[in-house]
Amino acid sequence: MKNIVILISGGGSNMAAIVKAAQNEAWASRYGAQIAAVISNKADAEGLAYARTQGIATAVVDHKQFAQAEDPRAAFDAELAKVIDKFEPHLVVLAGFMRILTEGFVLRYAGRLINIHPSLLPAFAGLRTHQRAIEAGCKVAGATVHRVTPELDHGPILGQVTVPVLPGDTPASLSARVLSQEHLLYPRVVAELLRAGI
Ligand code: GAR
């Protein structure tokens, strides 16, 4: 079985969309793939509860516990990798995982680490994407699924979706419009990768 490990930090709605697609599209029999685990850096991430209701293994690696380490980021990433590797991942899917990852972590999962970002990359890498898109006067916004490389939000693009920016949009209204499309885009890209035998 090709194990998919999904990392979240919060609501986990993209994770839930992927889980639902895996069920509805029978990824297990079609691609020999399963969502093996959902892992969060926050114990109170709402998405963990949903994963549990679906019978998916969950784990928490709290980044705050590594604050005193000599290199907190590296220490957290090393522990995270240990937990991920227990599930022998074929694919590691970042779904609202709000951590900047070390180069060592990214290279460990080279070719099998993907992310969704709520902008049309390479525009608006980083945070506050919706506010920055509105301030820039963009007429369209969107989301991007990309391979993760050491440079933040800059890996090769696997898929994108666009939505209009409407007059009077706020970051919240634009975010909601983009997010509803993310839920279609992300499962589609994951399925495409599985279909391609990746
Ligand atoms: C999504 O909009 C995702 O694109 C974004 O966080 C949200 C998570 O929502 N990711 C990033 O900003 C990564 N830099 P979710 O937890 O409901 O899937």
How would you portray this structure in words?
The structure is a single chain. The protein is an alpha/beta fold and 198 residues long. Helices cover 39% and strands 23% of the residues. It is built from seven helices and seven strands. Strand 4 (89-94), helix 5 (103-108) and strand 5 (113-117) form a beta-alpha-beta unit. It is globular, with a radius of gyration of 16 Å. It starts with a strand and ends with a helix. The structure holds glycinamide ribonucleotide. Glycinamide ribonucleotide (GAR) is lined by residues 8, 10-14, 95-96, 116-118, 143, 179, 182. Residues 8, 10-14, 95-96, 116-118, 143, 179, 182 line the site of glycinamide ribonucleotide.
- CATH C-level class: Alpha Beta
Strand content: 15-25%
Structural class: alpha/beta
Q: Provide the spatial order of strands within the biggest beta sheet.
A: 3-2-1-4-5-6-7
In this entry the ligands are: glycinamide ribonucleotide
Uncertain segments of ≥5 residues (pLDDT<50)? none
Give a short account of the largest sheet.
7 strands, mixed
The CATH architecture can be given as 3-Layer(aba) Sandwich
Helix content estimate: 25-40%
Radius of gyration: 16 Å
Distance, first to last CA? 13 Å
Tell me the CATH topology: Rossmann fold
User: How confident overall, as mean pLDDT?
Assistant: 97
**What is the H level of CATH, i.e. the homologous superfamily?**
Formyl transferase, N-terminal domain
Shape: globular
Q: Give a count of the beta strands, DSSP E runs of length 2 or more.
A: 7
Domains counted in the coordinates: how many? 1
